[in-house]
Design a protein that fits this description.
about 325 residues; 13-stranded mixed β-sheet
Length: about 325
């Protein structure tokens, strides 16, 4: 068993993938590249370099990392997706190819919904997802759910299967995760961390990191509006974003106020202003690779000397196909 908190060496290779069985076929060497994981769009992409290997049109490929740590050896699938080879450089008998690789979600982006497609109020959300993901060749697992639509979903111009999946996931507050072998998991967001990075324990973060706190749009005045009344809450506290300290007003307004039971409009305005003043915190760092962590996962950071502590949602990763698969990561505090 590989201990990912300790040092290891890594090498890489790739295989072509049978789109029917989803199993590996031929293998080939790669000389470098990187993998990108983002919350938006197709979520995963990759750029890889090879020597003396050419693709026949578009093919599904899978990238592997071989990890060696003392007597332990393991193989980890890093990326699976559609690859094309738009360019080749020839130097004598040496042919250097660069592949652009796209997510297994590409078929869902490329297939448009029928004009007039819609989903009715009361339909089971999982059934809709089953239908929308049917164009994806990769294995898809969708969590069981009895949730039903509370509003109509109607296809707009150029609406694809993927864009409608995104809309439905947003309504359900669910996430979609793509594993390294290309399989897809759709279900609720996790509630607990999957791993902890700790300055005293599992310390795999490199020393240099960046912390961004978005104070620019943080409001200090909030107006709550209903059909019959309105209330304006002003912040004259000692907070660094208050009116008095900041020297200017920054307004926010809501006209669709969701009051909890027994809550007045004044209390609602006070509560919502306090919630909006919870300044978002983004941390960017580079660390050693850990296969357990994907975008949409929660990690716990404990670096008190850097004033970084708590739960963070992983929003992006970039994995370099070099020594130890160095991973550049962005997380947002939750």
């Amino acid at each position: 068993m590989i201990d990912w908190s300790r040092g290891y060496s890594a090498s890489y290779y790739a295989t072509t993938v049978d789109p029917i069985t989803w199993s590996d076929t031929d293998s080939f060497d790669i000389t470098g590249g990187s993998i990108s994981r983002e919350e938006s769009d197709l979520r995963h992409s990759a750029d890889i370099d090879t020597v003396n290997f050419e693709l026949m049109g578009e093919q599904i490929i899978r990238l592997y990392m071989i990890v060696r740590q003392e007597d332990e050896v393991d193989r980890v699938a890093l990326f699976t997706g559609y690859a094309t080879s738009p360019s080749v450089t020839i130097n004598g008998l040496m042919r250097n190819n660069s592949f652009q690789c796209y997510s297994v979600l590409k078929p869902a982006e490329d297939v448009l919904l029928q004009r007039g497609w819609f989903a009715e109020v009361g339909m089971n959300c999982k059934s809709i997802l089953d239908n929308l993901t049917s164009v994806i060749h990769a294995p898809v697992h969708i969590s069981d759910s009895t949730a039903t639509l509370t509003d109509y979903l109607v296809a707009e111009a150029n609406e694809s299967h993927l864009s409608m999946i995104e809309k439905l996931l947003y309504l359900m507050n669910w996430r979609m995760i793509i594993a390294g072998d290309g399989s897809i998991e759709i279900g609720p967001y996790p509630k607990e961390e999957i791993v902890m990075f700790d300055s005293l324990g599992n310390d795999i973060l490199e020393p240099s990191l960046t912390i961004e706190r978005d104070w620019y749009k943080c409001p200090n005045v909030f107006r709550a509006v209903t059909d019959y009344d309105e209330y304006i809450e002003y912040d004259h506290s000692n907070n660094p974003w208050s009116i008095d300290v900041r020297g200017r007003e920054v307004w926010a307004e809501e006209t669709n106020c969701d009051l909890i039971e027994g809550e007045s409009l004044e209390l609602y305005a006070k509560r919502r202003l306090a919630e909006l003043q919870e300044v978002s915190e983004k941390v960017s760092y580079t660390r050693a690779f850990n296969p357990a962590v994907n975008i949409g996962d929660i990690v716990r950071l404990n670096y008190p000397a850097q004033n970084i502590s708590g739960l963070y949602l992983v929003v992006s990763q970039s994995i370099d196909l070099g020594y130890s698969a160095r991973t550049s990561e962005e997380v947002v505090k939750i």
